[in-house]
Amino acid sequence: MAANDRFSGLLLFVQHHFFLSTLVIAGFALVGYKIATYDKRHRHLPPEVPGWPIVNQTLLQQQEDAPPILRGWAEKYGEIFRTKAGVTTFIWLNSPESVKELFDRRSAIYSSRHEMPMAFQYATGGKRITLSPYNAIWRTSRAVFHKVLTPKMAEEYSVIQGFEAKQLSVDLLNKPRDFYKHNRRYAASVIFQVTYGWRIPEWDCDDVRNIFDVLGRFVQVRRPGQWTVDVVPGFADDPIFNMFSNWKKVGRSFHDKDNAIFMEFWNRLKRSIEDGTAAHCFGKVLQSSYEKQGLNESQAAWICGGLLEAGSETTSSTLNNFILLALSNPESIRLAHEELDRVVGTSRTPTFADERDLPFIRGMVKETLRLRPINKFGNNHCNTEDDWYKGYFIPKGSIVMANWWAIQFDPNRFPEPDKFLPGRWLDYPYTAAQAAAIADGTKRDHFTYGGGRRICAGMHVAEKSLFINIARLMWGFDMAAVDGFPLDFTIKGMQPGSGTIPKPFECAITPRSEQHERLMRDEWAQAEEEGIDFSHIKWSS
Ligand code: HEM
Question: Model-level pTM?
Answer without folding.
Answer: 0.92
